[in-house]
Design a protein that fits this description.
single chain, about 20% strand, alpha/beta, 6-stranded mixed β-sheet, cAMP
Length: about 260
């Protein structure tokens, strides 16, 4: 296709509630709207934190809820996930474990930034080497790199302490290759779209609670659960648009001071 439409998505915690929001219901409402608006897309990128309790049942439920979309789904773990359980149960549900997708004009590379038991992220040396090799192997393909943690500050002090700790190593690898590169990430539960060192960084909102932008301490935002569409063009351009459910449909606890 001349302009494949690839959709990136943030957190989808499943059973129970998160700060008074029934997360399975908010995800279901998002998926219902995705299907209702008939906006075309080719595949889904799930950028981590697919479960809050990282139970087998939550990953099974995620797979069941996503199945009606009838699109390929590719995933990576967030700091709230259990990677071995994700691999086991998503694979059993027929969801691909592929972490490199190569098309005619683009390649998509999914990186695991999880540090087990910690809220911040790191990219291991083996993944940095794999990224370097992938970019060298396909110098004529633009690259969309998906990960969970933010590689640059988003302006929320309480969130930015839980960032990607070796982001400089990531940017050093990217700087060695000439193709257009875009990074898609989750984790921050808000919209973000900026260019850093010649690389565009785009966040996907959450399908449940949203964090208030530019807040020093923990703060929730009134914006509704959302998702982001990306359109990747042959010349390296990325068109991006955030869609949201109506304000007030899923309201988190206004007195929450953390989670």
């Amino acid at each position: 296709m001349a302009a494949p439409r690839w959709r990136g998505r943030g957190r989808a915690a499943l059973p129970g509630r998160l700060l008074a929001v029934r997360t399975a219901e908010s995800l279901a409402a998002v998926l219902e709207q995705v299907q209702a608006n008939a906006h075309p897309y080719d595949l889904i990128l799930a950028t981590g934190d697919l479960s809050q309790d990282h139970s087998p049942e939550s990953y099974q439920r995620f797979a069941t809820m996503m199945a009606p979309l009838s699109r390929p789904i590719y995933w990576l773990p967030g700091n709230h996930d259990d990677s071995p359980l994700m691999t086991e149960h998503l694979h059993a549900a027929g969801i691909s474990e592929a972490k490199q997708l190569v098309g005619e004009h683009w390649q998509v590379i999914l990186l695991d930034t999880q540090v087990r038991g910690k809220p911040h992220g790191m990219i291991g040396d083996h993944q940095l080497e794999a990224l370097d090799n992938a970019l060298r192997q396909y110098p004529d393909r633009h690259a969309l790199i998906a990960l969970h943690h933010q590689a640059v500050p988003v302006g929320c002090a309480w969130l930015d302490q839980h960032n990607l700790k070796n982001a400089d190593d990531l940017f050093a690898v990217l700087a060695r290759h000439p193709q257009q590169k875009t990074i898609l990430f989750g984790h921050v539960h808000q919209e973000f779209d900026e260019v850093h060192r010649g690389v565009r960084l785009i966040s996907s909102p959450s399908t449940c609670i949203q964090f208030k932008p530019l807040s020093d301490g923990f703060a929730l935002d009134e914006s509704g659960p959302g998702w982001r569409y990306l359109t990747l063009y042959p010349d390296g351009r990325v068109a991006s648009e955030v869609w949201r459910l109506p304000v007030g449909q899923f309201v988190p606890d206004p007195n929450a001071t953390g989670y």
